[in-house]
Design goal:
This protein is an alpha/beta fold. It is 33% helix and 20% strand. It has helices spanning 21-42, 57-64, 91-98, 119-130, 160-164, 189-194, 205-217, 225-229, and strands at 13-18, 46-50, 73-77, 79-81, 108-109, 139-142, 172-176, 183-187, 197-203, 233-238. The strands form 2 sheets. A 7-stranded parallel sheet has the order 1-10-9-6-2-3-5, sandwiched between helices.
Length: 241
């Protein structure tokens, strides 16, 4: 059965819950597809940014099965580890293996990693590549770590203030993670805020504890997810399977 929205979340945050992660993956995929269909009805192209890691795999597979005019959809990442696609941890490889298949095989994919020797050296090219996508991004699917990070915006990372600044016009930023591979590339906080639909995909009771802690601390530097909870977004949450 569905779980009620936690009372510590603001009124402008939407809440969708399922009793297992497979049902949640289907529900989230359907929501994403509906938003993309609306965008395609209104504009020549639609844009989608997705997160990596283990949580979104089933959702990406479900989304790949949904019929859309995928040739008119630009897909990119919310953030990326600065590694090539043939190396462990590549979010691009995850997306290509799970989303750019089946009905979605004809979507246009824009990678964030570009082969530069470091993430800081690759920022300019990444900025240029992301500029080809219709913006604001129609759908931005975020994840969240138990430390309160989202995208590759980590607590107290060296470039966090600039990467999250509301007056930063850049599309992307090079950031540093506390775990290997430490070099990351991420959409900036301002661009995430500007996305037409922001969806936060969470699985597990521990994620509710993190949300509660973020709302209690009220500090974007200590738990960056707090900044995004201050503006409209929709949370899709489930217990584990």
């Amino acid at each position: 059965m569905n779980t009620a929205k936690p009372d510590y979340l603001p009124a402008h945050v939407g809440w969708h819950s399922q009793n297992n992660d497979k049902l949640l993956a289907q529900s989230l995929a359907q929501a994403i597809a509906a938003y993309l269909a609306d965008a395609l009805a209104a504009r020549p192209r639609a844009s989608l940014a997705v997160s990596g890691g283990r949580t979104p795999t089933a959702m990406l597979q479900a989304l790949s099965q949904i019929e859309l005019d995928w040739q008119r959809v630009d897909i990119t990442l919310v953030d990326e580890r600065w590694v090539a696609e043939d190396q462990a941890g590549s979010n691009a490889a995850l997306v290509k293996a799970n989303l750019l298949q089946n009905a979605a095989a004809e979507a246009n994919f824009i990678a964030m990693y570009n082969g530069a020797k470091s993430n800081t050296a690759g920022v300019a090219q990444c900025q240029q590549d992301l500029a080809s996508i219709s913006r604001p991004v129609d759908v931005m699917v975020l994840g969240m770590g138990n430390d309160g990070h989202t995208a590759s915006l980590f607590p107290h990372c060296p470039n966090l203030h600039t990467a999250m600044a509301d007056n930063n016009p850049a599309l992307c930023a090079a950031t540093t993670a506390p775990v290997e591979p430490t070099q990351r590339m991420t959409w900036t906080g301002q661009q995430i805020h500007l996305a037409r639909h922001k969806l936060l995909h969470l699985v597990g009771e521990d994620k509710l504890d993190t949300l509660a802690q973020a709302m209690q601390l009220r500090s974007p530097s200590k738990m960056p997810i707090f900044a995004f909870l201050q503006r409209p977004m929709e949370i899709f949450w489930s217990t584990k399977a």
